[in-house]
Amino acid sequence: MRIRFLLPMLALVAGLGTAVATPAAADPGPLTAGDVSAADACYSWGRTLSEGASGEDVRQLQIRVAGYPGYGGVLAIDGQFGAGTKAAVTRFQQAYGLGADGIAGSATFSKIYALQDNDCSPVNFTFAELNRCNSDWSGGNVSAATAKANALVSMWKLQAMRHAMGDRPITVNGGFRSVSCNNAVGGATNSRHLYGDAVDLGAGSQGFCGLAKQARNHGFSEILGPGYPGHSDHTHVAHRSSRFWSASACGI
Question: Does 239 participate in catalysis according to the annotation?
Fold first, then answer.
């Protein structure tokens, strides 16, 4: 549930003054006063974003479209709106029946607002699902803040994957682990779970192989499933610096 509120007039003027006036045929930009005043409790965009833009608002957009990099791709979340971000925004727009021009304007942001909860997680996934180890995300191989931020990106990738698979629920069996939690389950010492960007998925209605195959389209550089040692009972997706996909029973 998102909380909407009216911004003070001076804030409206300031926000509109930074808008990039790049009209788009089907996703009108720049944003109007009405668009900005209907702000979101998690995060609100105050300008239309297109290729060449940079800043925190671009980075926030990249998090939400991280699941749309294309087959085998990984979208850099760097605050720079380049060709990769434009392509990801275009795929996001196509997925939701919006005008697909790669420009993030009012229609694109409205869809994102509808897809996120007040804590910035996507509506179909929760931070609690991604951390069954402890309450504060501490004790891993990165800071608690970084682990939680990594998990947020993974959730948005899963949201994209879920939508692509007909909006059928995806079962999350686990995510972040502290060193002690990882040792307790016999996890590898270099497990991506220690960084907060790994998620283990149950078969659900899609099946382990269905999940593993679909994950290739949604920004996961590590995919492990049936046929890989220790992964006959789940599909593992994560982020790493180089691609490693192995689920031989699934043809991956």
Answer: no
